[in-house]
Structures are given as C-alpha cells and as structure tokens.
C-alpha cells in the first residue's frame, strides 16, 4: 500500500509542475489546480480506507464533490469578464 501512496504523490506532482513552471495561461493553471484538488481528495479516500476511518473518508468525499465548485465559478467569472 505504501507503493500506491508513493505513486499517487508522484502523480500529484505532475500538475503541480504544470501549474507553477510551465505556461502563464490562466486556464491551464486552473485546470492543473483542479486536478491537484481531485487527486488530493482521492488520496484522502485511499488513506481513510487503509486506516478504516470513515470520518476522514467523509471529508474526502466532501472535498471531491464541492472542492472544484469554486474553480467552476471562477472560470465563469473570467469568461464573462473577457466577453465584455
């Protein structure tokens, strides 16, 4: 299981590299940060199953379902500002 967590952390670093050091495009950064949020919540779910702690799992589900809603709202605001 530790190998699985290490692989998940490495997969988490790929969009972090994309967000920080690659493009200066705002949309690419938002996409990378949304990917990071999703991967972190999946890691929380895996850890909660490994520890058999369902309170941590509930927090992971809340992050997974509501965490990217802020990015969606920000994307819509940027889209409307650019149209005007």
TrEMBL record:
Provide the alphabetized UniProt keywords.
Membrane, Transmembrane, Transmembrane helix
Q: Where are the transmembrane segments?
A: 30-49, 56-78
Lineage: superkingdom: Bacteria
Protein name, per record: Sodium:proton antiporter
Q: Which organism is it from?
A: Planktothrix tepida PCC 9214
